[in-house]
Specification:
The structure is a single chain. By secondary structure, the chain is α/β, with parallel strands linked by helices. The protein folds into 2 domains: about 110 residues, Rossmann fold (3-Layer(aba) Sandwich), CATH 3.40.50.10330; about 140 residues, Probable inorganic polyphosphate/atp-NAD kinase, domain 2 (Tumour Suppressor Smad4, Sandwich). It contains 5 helices and 19 strands. The strands form 2 sheets. Strands 1, 2, 3, 4, 5, 6, 7, 8, 9, 11, 12, 16 and 19 form a 13-stranded mixed β-sheet that branches. It has a 6-stranded antiparallel β-sheet with strand order 15-14-13-10-17-18. Strand 3, helix 1 and strand 4 form a beta-alpha-beta unit. The longest helix is centred in the first third of the chain and has 16 residues. The chain is globular.
Length: about 350
């Protein structure tokens, strides 16, 4: 989800206009998207971290290629301390994972969207951008292909990229008498049944107003970024990343009328379990467990104060990604042997 303004560095002269002409930037009452097209500075990103699953040979291969190319461009390359990849004689620096974002100006995530989510958690507290190289299966977030890795990386290093700011969720697990547990998510916060084969009964509240009582396997609370992830498989809508909105998508609801809803991103969402003998649920934030939600606990989800910054090539096209990943437009009218992006 993106909430800022698109800017292109241009130089303009003075322009005369009618006193009745509305300036372009004043015509819309809605915020501009948080996409910034950058102009080329002298040198960007002197220290760059590579993050990926080093047990995957495809990822390791790409990391070596990236390290070699970055070294040829006089960049300092950092890795998570437990990365086990043979870089030969290439100079690389190992660093503690939790503070990696404080030591670099850019994190390159090599893998799928799971790797991108992990890299975003490392980068967001320090305001460091993340660039994705797709070596995963689907990849809505990591949009650079291995075949274009050097060319695209050069574009980024030369300052030719789109800067894309995405909203994040903050989840708080509140239990009486204990310290709150918190975490942040770029994609989604999920409530799911745990250690039971029976469905969950829970209530949702939005901005202190009662919404619904649910029966089912759980609930997905997703950002616009996460609307193409778990929430999509629950029948939720695809939200354009620039929308300031969250999706609440029930997981396998017992009642067919229990449908996904979209709420504004300034909303505070609260989930409570309904008391029953075997009620047991778990809270997951971007695939990482936050803990158990028991009767009497409260799960409170709201917009996080921090955001994640993604970098894309200048020709980045969200609709092209949707067509490619979801196989849109590949119906009977596409003739065999014809090209499709």
């Amino acid at each position: 989800m993106v909430r800022s303004r698109a800017e292109t560095s241009t130089e303009t002269g003075s322009v005369k206009r009618s006193p009745f002409q509305i300036p372009h930037d004043e015509r819309s009452c809605t915020p501009h998207a948080k996409k910034t097209v950058m102009s080329a500075p002298t040198q960007q990103f002197k220290s760059i971290a590579l993050v990926g699953n080093h047990h995957d040979p495809r990822v390791s291969e790409s990391m070596v290629i990236l390290a070699a190319h970055l070294h040829s461009r006089q960049r300092r390359v950092l890795l998570v301390s437990d990365t086990e990849v043979d870089f030969g004689s290439l100079p690389v620096v190992h660093h503690a994972e939790q503070t990696l974002g404080s030591a670099v100006e850019l994190i390159v995530a090599v893998g799928g969207d799971g790797t991108m989510l992990h890299a975003a958690r490392l980068a967001a507290p320090y305001g460091v951008p993340v660039l994705g190289v797709n070596r995963g299966r689907l990849g809505f977030l990591a949009d650079i292909t291995p075949a274009d890795i050097r060319e695209r990386l050069d574009e980024i290093l030369d300052g030719r990229y789109v800067k894309d700011t995405r909203a994040m969720l903050e989840a708080r697990l509140i239990r009486p008498g204990e310290t709150d547990r918190t975490c942040q998510a770029l994609n989604d916060v999920v409530l799911q049944k745990w250690q039971t084969g029976r469905m969950l009964d829970f209530e949702t509240w939005i901005d202190d107003r009662y919404v619904n009582s649910h029966g089912g396997d759980g609930l997905v609370i997703a950002t616009a970024t996460g609307s193409t992830a778990y929430a999509l498989s629950c029948g939720g809508p695809i939200l354009y990343p620039e929308l300031d909105a969250f999706v609440l998508a029930p997981i396998c609801p017992h009642t067919l009328s229990d449908r996904p809803i979209v709420v504004r991103s300034s909303s505070t969402i609260e989930v409570r379990l309904v008391e029953r003998g075997d009620a047991s649920a778990q809270v997951i934030s971007d695939g990482v467990s936050l803990g158990e939600l028991a009767v009497g606990d409260r799960l409170v989800v709201s917009s996080a104060a921090t955001t994640a910054t993604l970098l894309h090539p200048r020709d980045h096209d969200y609709y092209r990604i949707l067509r490619s990943k979801l196989r849109w437009g590949r119906g009977d009218r596409i003739l065999p042997g014809s090209s499709f992006e």
